[in-house]
Amino acid sequence: MRVPLIVGNWKMYKIMNEAVELVNEIKRELLDFRKAEIVVCPPVTNLSSVYELLMETNIGLGAQNLYWEKEGAFTGEVSALMIKDCGCEYVIIGHSERRKYFSESDENVNKKIKASLEVGLVPIMCVGETLEEREATKTIEVIKQQLVGGLKGFSLQDLGNLVIAYEPVWAIGTGKTATPTQAQEIHKVIREWILENFSSELSSNMRILYGGSVTPENIRELMRQEDIDGALVGGASLKSASFVGIVKNSVDE
Ligand code: PEP
């Protein structure tokens, strides 16, 4: 059985006191909640402080990015081990904002996944098509290309914990959510691709999250889809009421 996973991506929001306030509010509401796994991904500047507040709770910590080299003269970058050392279990890799604003390629994504696995971090690999690609009926082709490039060279054993997030670029931060049917169609494609390229066990155990304007109102119907196992939440994770609402509505009462 796949345990539902709800991940909050705080992007470049929240200075220290705001991060502490938000995480304390989330804790207050969700400390006893065991029906879904919950992870928050604050900016790197807040990781250690948030970790102190989440230690030994049911709420996990993730980072939003890393650099693939182990160490060295890479001013401004943060390694997988540094992220792990801050208490992270998860790391988001290949988010569309990184692909768009920082020219991150599938090859970069591949190196970052490798670096995260080497230190025992669970990568949340993001894939998704732009509106232009969807309108040109290239969605499936684009998703498969991202899967091929991002997961090149890995063995079945490597990917046991991998999480994939399907995030249509046109749905991120726009208020336009993919319909549950549209999302399910692509989740199924991803699961089948994993089956064809790795194994049926990995495919049926792998959690595939949906991301793109998820709200407490639309999460229920998305979660009713067979291949949707949770959500990667941006905007709505910045306020405790909406994030808590999404977590609670992601599972049956
Ligand atoms: C995201 O940042 O991954 C995301 C899905 O953002 P939003 O929920 O705001 O669309």
Characteristic key phrases:
253 residues; alpha/beta; TIM Barrel; eight-stranded parallel barrel; 8 strands; binds phosphoenolpyruvate
Provide an overview of this structure.
- The structure is a single chain.
- The chain is an alpha/beta fold and 253 residues long.
- It has one domain: Alpha-Beta Barrel (TIM Barrel), CATH 3.20.20.70.
- It is 41% helix and 15% strand.
- The protein has eleven helices and eight strands.
- The chain has helices spanning 16-30, 47-54, 80-85, 96-101, 106-118, 131-135, 139-150, 180-197, 200-205, 219-223, 240-249, and strands at residues 5-9, 37-41, 59-63, 90-93, 122-127, 163-166, 207-211, 230-233.
- The chain has an eight-stranded parallel barrel, surrounded by six helices.
- It is globular, with a radius of gyration of 17 Å.
- The protein starts with a strand and ends with a helix.
- The model has no long low-confidence stretch (mean pLDDT 97).
- It binds phosphoenolpyruvate (PEP).
- Phosphoenolpyruvate binds next to β8.
